[in-house]
Amino acid sequence: MAVEVHDVPDAKRYEARVDGESKVAGVAEYIRTTELIAFVHTEVAPEYGGRGVASASARTALDEARATNLRTIATCSFFTGRLARHPEYQDLLHQSRGRVSD
């Protein structure tokens, strides 16, 4: 099974398709600025679950973030877990400059 992932900026998400099908198998939604990309939601169609669609989406999104010098914020639990399990992406994490005082 081949998973192809492409950024669709107008939809603010990465879309994954399997074996050249036209149907979207999964998405990774984001909010992007000039310096950051926040991954906010990942979803895979039930019939594609457990087949690596979400992992392929995350890998592509994080590799493209690195290639374009974007820092990442993961509010999506899938991306949070992926970043925790893959230390090679730790350098992409946005580091807060400190706490905002009240």
Largest sheet: 5 strands, mixed
Identify the overall geometry.
globular
- The total domain count is 1
The structure class reads alpha+beta
CATH superfamily: Gcn5-related N-acetyltransferase (GNAT)
E-strand count: 5
Low-confidence stretches: none
CATH architecture: 3-Layer(aba) Sandwich
Highest-level CATH class: Alpha Beta
Percent of residues in helices: 10-25%
Report what the structure shows.
This protein has 102 residues and is an alpha+beta fold. It has one domain (3-92): Aminopeptidase. 24% of the residues lie in helices and 31% in strands. It is built from two helices and five strands. Strands 1-2-3-4-5 form a five-stranded mixed β-sheet. This is GNAT family N-acetyltransferase. Pfam families: Acetyltransf_CG.
Note the main attributes of this structure.
102 residues; alpha+beta; Aminopeptidase; 5-stranded mixed sheet; 2 helices; 5 strands; globular
